[in-house]
Amino acid sequence: MLSFLIKRIAHAAGVMLAVAFFAFMIFRFVGDPVELMLNEQASQAQRDELREKLGLNHGFVLQFATFVANAARGEFGISFRNQQEVSTLIAERFPATFELVIVATVLSLLIGVPLGVYTAIRRSSAAAQALQFVSVLGVSLPSFAVGILLILLFSVTLGWLPAFGRGDVVQLGPWSTGFLTPSGRAALVLPGITLSLFQITLVMRLVRAEMLEVLRADFIRFARARGLRERAVNFHHALRNCLMPVITVTGLQIGNLIAFALVTETVFQWPGMGLLFVQAVTFIDIPVMAAYLMVVSFIFVALNTLVDLLYAVVDPRLRQDALQGGAHAR
Question: Which spans are transmembrane here (predicted)?
């Protein structure tokens, strides 16, 4: 098990180094930071001073090593647009994105898993067929169109929910949360539904496909032959054996939701990292773009590692294989 962890950490470090190199190349070839940070009236002496301060006079290897060392400490320089530390901007925006992703993930599991089980057990019913049709729409509709439709219906027409913003937030140390205020919870509803729609349909279709496969297995026939109740067969035996793909998809999709929440955040003007990245692209704010790339990549790598560890928790066979591998190594 220890060798497995070491191998996974080594792989994660390699991936992060590759991402860091890509982000570093953005710094070097997208534009000259000195020209972007200073106005046209700046003197040559000011340009030379800033170039020396940013370390641009050093060689390629030294600049890359400095960039990696700073990124490992969470330091990505100064935002060209806001003239603030990029790490501070990311820290201010991350709670909003994280809360939105958590809401979308919880909705996808609470809705997607039961719907997947139902459409597998009652696959010939009219309701199951209707849910299958709706799931195709959920996969096909782009998130910005869903968001606009929800705003038109629930904000403009009915006036039930806010159309943009995060509402009132409460500061818990460095963390800001909207869960503790009525307006904050109300503001989460529409963007949470918009972001979770694709995830709901994905989880539902995955659970349905896995359930149909498992329900044809021999151990399900034996369970029914033993006289077990249908509910116990479906939920205790069949659904439990469908959890591993759901864990995989959910873990990876959390990273996808964080990375691609920028569309939802733009539609609802949600003050998260996605909106910050869109603004950075608009103003060619290279440090923010590089920091966003590094943070999202780190989240992907961390979630992949966590999913691998959860495999060993859910499937006892993987724990046994890890123990046997460690014994053979000794």
Answer: 12-30, 100-121, 133-163, 183-207, 246-270, 290-314
